[in-house]
Structure formats: C-alpha cells, structure tokens
Design goal:
The complex is a heterodimer. Chain A is an all-beta fold. Helices cover 0% and strands 50% of the residues of chain A. By secondary structure, chain B is mostly beta strands. Chain B is built from no helices and twelve strands. In chain B, strands 2, 5, 6, 10, 11 and 12 form a six-stranded mixed beta sheet that branches. In chain B, strands 3-9-8-7 form a four-stranded antiparallel beta sheet, with no helix packed on it. Chain B has a two-stranded antiparallel sheet with strand order 1-4. In chain B, a hairpin with a 5-residue loop joins strand 10 and strand 11. Classes of the chains: A mainly beta, B mainly beta. At the A-B interface, strand 9 and strand 10 of A face strand 5, strand 6 and strand 10 of B.
Chain lengths: 113, 113
C-alpha cells in the first residue's frame, strides 16, 4: 500500500535531550513537510523540502532540524533548544506542483518527561 | 497574501441533523480549495477538493462543498450527520502557481446521539 509512515506513534523526551521523529513515504512524491499541531491552533509549518538535499524553514523552525538525504525520508529532530516541544507532529508529502495536494501520516505525539 | 478563516471552532449537532461548516479565504489569484478530516489521534485525510470545473464537489461519504468565488467561500455541508462524522475538519487553500497550502484553524464537529 502506498502511503506515509511516521514512527514512533508516541515519544517522550527528557530535559536537554534531542529526539528524532521518522517519516517515510512510498508515494514517489518530491515534496515533504513537517507540521506541529497544538489544540485549537491548527497546523503550523515547521520545515518543508521540495527535493533531495534541499529544505526550507517554515513558520516555526526554531528548535527543530531536518535532513533530506533520500527522496523517501524526511526525519525531524526536536532539539533541546525547543523549550515547549509537547505537541502532535504530522508529516505530509505531495507532488511539487501548484495544486499541492498533501497526504499525511498518522502522526507522532511527543511529550516531555 | 492568502489566508483561510474557519468561522466556527466547534459545532455540536444532533445525529441525523444537517450541518454546515464555514470556510472563507482571501487571495488575489485563482485558488484550489480542499477539506481535510482528522479523526482523534490520526493524521489528516483529504475529504474533497475543488480544482476546476463544477463548483459543487462531493465526497464518497455524503459531504459536499460549494466554491463561491464572489463570496470567497467554500462551505462544507452534509444533510444528515452520523455519530461517526465526529472529527475535526480543516479547510485549506493553495494558489495557482503558488506551491504552498494554507490550512485553517479547524472546526471540531461533535455529533450527539
């Protein structure tokens, strides 16, 4: 089945720790995205990537980092600089065209211990 | 710059009643419009889309939305809701030639027995 796989489903972070969220897609999409979702705030764009080895900051990139070494994979690292990381994180992918129809993974819920 | 406004953050409704979730957008160019649905602790799923042609679009589970260019709206309707329709609904817009999607803040639909 084609789709987007996010792992883990739940993740806990200790103070001062970096954690990495995985996102893999087999839709052959060029573009991939990371969003943060907080209650009542909708989706906020963290980073996006149009092509391998290239990525752009979104609206709330501070405290996060990404890499795009393979077309299929777009991992997100939540660094210790992100002081309020508790949220639901969603990965998405799309063709790189102006319709920009995005397909989403099931999400990772990150909590702080 | 484009923006999306979902006018209601929460909509409670009784089972088998009709419902309308409102969405307005602003843009200076032609747009593509989308509704996504998110069930608890899951990612977003594309519910329906307007790309071109008929301004009335329908989903497989009975929802419909109508693109009204003069009112810059794309309201979502269903004539008779089920308990299983309880979810959060996101309106989204991308601009022709823009390569970016903006999401609304979401409307939580709660269907009561």
């Amino acid at each position: 089945d084609g789709g987007i796989t996010q792992s883990p489903k739940y993740l806990f972070r200790k103070e001062g720790q970096n954690v990495t969220l995985s996102c893999e897609q087999n839709l052959n999409h060029d573009a991939m995205y990371w969003y943060r979702q907080d209650p009542g705030q909708g989706l906020r764009l963290i980073y996006y990537s149009q092509i391998v080895n290239d990525f752009q900051k979104g609206d709330i990139a501070e405290g996060y980092s990404v890499s795009r070494e393979k077309k299929e994979s777009f991992p997100l690292t939540v660094t210790s600089a992100q002081k309020n990381p508790t949220a639901f994180y969603l990965c998405a992918s799309s063709l790189w065209d102006d319709k920009n129809i995005q397909y989403f993974g099931a999400g990772t819920r990150l909590s702080v211990l | 710059a484009q923006s999306v406004t979902q006018l209601d953050s929460q909509v409670p409704v009784f089972e088998e009643a009709p419902v309308e979730l409102r969405c307005n957008y602003s843009s200076s160019v032609s747009v593509y419009l989308f509704w996504y649905v998110q069930y608890p602790n899951q990612g977003l799923q594309l519910l329906l889309k307007y790309l071109s042609g008929s301004t009335l679009v329908e989903s497989i589970n009975g929802f419909e939305a109508e693109f009204n260019k003069s009112q810059t709206s794309f309201h979502l309707r269903k004539p008779s809701v089920h308990i299983s329709d309880t979810a959060e609904y996101f309106c989204a817009v991308s601009e022709t030639g823009g390569f970016k999607t903006i999401f609304g803040a979401g409307t939580r639909l709660f269907v009561k027995a």
